[in-house]
Design brief:
By secondary structure, the chain is α/β, with parallel strands linked by helices. Helix content is about 30%, strand content about 15%. It has 15 helices and 15 strands. The chain has helices at about 5-15, 20-30, 50-60, 80-85, 95-100, 120-125, 140-155, 170-180, 220-225, 250-260, 265-270, 375-380, 395-405, 415-435, 450-455; strands at about 40-45, 65-70, 90, 110, 130-135, 160, 185-195, 275-285, 295-300, 310-315, 350-355, 360-365, 370-375, 435-440, 445. Strands 13-12-11-7-10-9-8-14-15 form a nine-stranded mixed sheet. A six-stranded parallel sheet has the order 3-2-1-4-5-6, with helices on both faces. α7 packs antiparallel against α14 (about 415-435). The radius of gyration is 22 Å and the shape is globular.
Length: about 475
């Protein structure tokens, strides 16, 4: 772009309610914008599919100006809605050029790119002192997450938030309150389950290689899309959400849903990092994309006065956890947003978790869903002992923007979300290798398995991307 807006000129345009702001109100509904000088100047990287939803949710708070749009496929169908919503905003295809030209006028950035593409963008933004909202999981590999967490720790003025939006809603405040009140105590087992259909279900697991090369769309910068994973030929089954299917690009069902199911238990039970990770059952295991179903076990040792915990993960349509007596009906969870592919398909068991403690069993759903004590007669006995749960002062998106303004503290900062994301990266290694291994949380290495240990960092970054791993 040969032009870009200064902070002062953009605020002036916004105050006049012209261009992007007026048009976006018509598409997003009535947005009550804060005063111009009270808004956060937000640049958006990854503007289609889930990235577009993030932008809408951040803008609906009324707390930000959208000052830049960036996507490797600005001509793709999936990017058009956001560009129409903000027609006067500068556009870029390369996030590095955007930061070069507009870095001084950007307060915060939203990152709605594939899992593998979070790292370099977030690291550069933090290096420039720009606040970061990144979709879950934080990044793809254990050491990318470690570097991001360390960078955030050494950048105290930079606000960070991972996009597991339920971490700012009822589930968050209930779990914290019940834990503080001693209702949730002595937890020794958690069964988390996600049994909805996945994109790769039905693929041929006898695969011998990646799909055949196809002609790259003219609007897409394929080399830039790949970033540090450079070396793959374009195929439609790599883009627009399909990247989640492949070990080289995504983190499967665990990386996609784990942060919506295990986030509060991980934080408030202070689970940290596991010492044993096991692929208990993998149906349709292969070397390229995720299994048709997976059962994984994570063992977390004793912490302070809390007992050891086994977290069991179940994905796959028919791979259900044991159902305790008195569980009741698994209703459709209203907190689960519909996927980009359409409506949520009915399943045998809706995404959720079962938390076992010494005296009580808790049944929970996903995202913001609150816990129930089961069976019903036990819940009735406990009813008058339950403390009042405070209401959330802000949703996840407003929480981030208010934190950028110094008004709140983010609830899913990299400090909180880092080890949670690392748990998922360890689980993916077990899936990929169909193995069981021991992990040393102090040394942060996999014990007695050099090949598995190498996957903590993954392949060396492609030429030109090494600098982000040295910041």
């Amino acid at each position: 772009m040969n032009h870009y807006l200064s902070r002062r000129s953009f605020i002036k345009k916004s105050a006049m309610a012209g261009g992007a702001v007026a048009f976006s109100n018509s598409l997003l509904g009535n947005v009550n914008l804060a005063k111009p000088n009270e808004r956060v100047n937000l640049a958006c990287i990854g503007i289609g599919n889930r990235g577009g939803e993030i932008i809408r949710d951040l803008y609906k708070t009324g707390l930000c100006n959208v000052v830049a749009l960036c996507d490797v496929d600005m001509g793709g169908k999936h990017t058009q809605d956001i560009m129409k919503t903000f027609p006067d905003v500068p556009r870029f295809q390369d996030f590095r050029k955007m930061f070069d030209q507009m870095g001084g006028q950007i307060d915060a950035v939203s990152i709605g790119t594939p899992d593998f593409a979070h790292f370099a963008i977030a690291m550069l933004a933090m290096d420039l002192g720009i606040h970061v909202y990144v979709e879950k999981p934080m990044a793809q590999t254990f050491w990318e997450i470690e570097l991001m967490t360390d960078k955030a720790r050494r950048s105290p003025k930079v606000v960070t938030q991972m996009g597991n939006q339920g971490h700012s809603e009822a589930n968050y405040f209930q779990f914290k309150t019940w834990k503080d009140a001693g209702i949730i105590k002595d937890v020794n087992r958690i069964d988390a389950h996600m049994n909805m259909p996945r994109r790769w279900h039905g693929w041929d697991t006898n695969i011998k290689g990646f799909p055949y090369p196809e002609r790259t769309p003219e609007t897409l910068d394929w080399d830039l899309w790949q970033m540090q994973t450079l070396g793959h030929d374009y195929n439609k089954d790599f883009v627009n959400g399909q990247w989640r299917c492949w070990y080289d690009f995504g983190m499967g069902a665990l990386g996609d849903w784990g942060a919506h199911l295990l986030d509060t238990a991980h934080e408030f039970l202070e689970l940290g990092l596991p010492t044993e990770i096991e692929a208990v059952r993998l149906d349709g295991h292969n070397s390229f994309f995720f299994p048709m179903s997976s059962t994984l076990r994570f063992h977390f040792p004793k912490r302070k006065n809390m007992p050891a915990v086994d977290v069991n993960w179940y994905d796959g349509i028919d791979n259900l956890p044991p159902i305790p007596e008195g569980y009741g009906v698994s209703g459709l969870d209203p907190n689960i947003p519909p996927p980009s592919t359409g409506k949520i398909e009915p399943v045998k068991l809706n995404p959720g978790k079962i938390i076992y403690s010494k005296d009580l069993i808790f049944k929970g759903g996903s995202h913001a869903s609150t816990l129930q004590i089961i069976p019903e007669n036990k819940a009735k006995d406990m009813a008058n002992k339950l403390p009042e749960v405070p209401k959330t002062p802000s949703n996840h998106f407003a929480n981030f923007l208010k934190a950028c303004k110094g008004e709140e503290k983010t609830r899913s900062s990299f400090e909180v979300a880092g080890q949670l994301s690392q748990v998922f990266s360890l689980g993916v290694i077990a899936q990929r290798l169909n193995s069981k291994f021991t992990f040393d949380p102090q040394k942060k290495e996999i014990v007695d398995d050099k090949f598995a240990n190498a996957l903590l960092a993954g392949p060396a970054p492609a030429k030109g991307w090494e600098q982000f791993y040295k910041m």
